[in-house]
Amino acid sequence: MQLHSTFLELLTFSTLMLLTPIEALFILRKWNPIFHFLLLCLLLLCFCLKSHLSKSRPVYLVDFSCFKSPSFCRVPFSTFLENASMFGSFDAESLDFMAKILLSSGQSEETYLPPALHYIPPKSHQQDSIGEAEMVLLPVMDDLLSKTEVSSGEIDILIVNCSGFCPSPALSSIIINRYKLRYDVKSYNLSGMGCSAGAIAIDLAQNLLKTHNNSYAVILSTEILSTGWYSGNERQKLLLNCVFRMGGAAILLTNKKEAGKSSKYKLFCSLRTQRAFEDRAYYSTIREEDSIGKLGVTLKRDLLQVAGETLRAHISILGQEILPIMEKLQYLFSMIRKKFVHKSGEIYVPNFKKVIQHFCLPTSGRPVIREIGKGLKLGDKDMEAALMTLHRFGNQSSSSLWYELAYIEAKERVKKGDKVWLLGMGSGPKSNSLIWECVRPIVGESNKGPWAGCIHRYPVPV
Q: Residue 7 has what pLDDT?
């Protein structure tokens, strides 16, 4: 790709260097204007050729798989609270606080925790965490390769994202070893990127596919919970014990031309923004020790405000890229009116539903989902996938977006030409958007994937 880019720049420079003196000669000799026209046509032809050659191939989402936890990992509220009371690390106030969080979280009694957290006290040893990673990642990898009929030897790029657990050898190396991937596979391991890491991994993969033609990229997205369990009594750190649950996803991307007919989606647009440059935003979510040395993730009181500011800046940039011209003009006029005419007036919120038909939102909690939906002027149907995923599976961090997409597919709502917006938000803070365009009808998914056997029960009131 570097040589390709250099060649295009050289072509542009050479064309200008050649045509400039020729045009000067035409002017000095006072030649017929037709020669100026021909020269202009040649210049336009060269720039069109450059534009055609520099255009990268589309990135297709062939298929994806989500992990369905075994029933023995289910953790009803009563079991969670009973076990927590027996750990010996939580006081009565902390237990009452976690009970309130569970009841107001929007989760059902059917979410899952890994086996290591069912022990009393919980196990958080290295080997237990590696066992949890294998328990989640290997089945989804097997399922993905089976349903796409792609062999492990055909994988050119491997990206594994897990925010809180980074062993050595890395999780990507564990996958390479287990599936005996090729010696030249491009492997990456993303850690510390929070709940938006799954969307970041897709963005990384699509950039790699720009430089590697005719390639397959596999993304494995999960969060290992056994290392993230907090056993102290600071309320700001107890929230994650209550809302984070087991999950994982495997995604296959490609830029192969022949995949255009068999794939589910084509990447229409991706966008990444962050606010780590601002101290207040940076410290809004941070992993640190409490006053007695116990490690946990602190969620500051102004987190929701920071998230709102981060999201507003993000969708403002995204809107410039994808919204129709009339929506852009309405937004611009409302900004001008607020600044110069009605300072108390409201700024127009663009209608993203004019471009996007389906929405997969962060499953950070019921109030957060509804607040994001309100900010984007979404209806209950638009927020349904996020609310139902939270209810059935809890917050699965970076992989939740794929359970939401699986929900929409299981309901057979995605039609050819529809666009789906996957919005990831994570610590940092970061906002990441993936907009996929459906390239073929998607049917028959109700009996597959994580929603098999229960999709008929949804939606439920939350």
A: 52
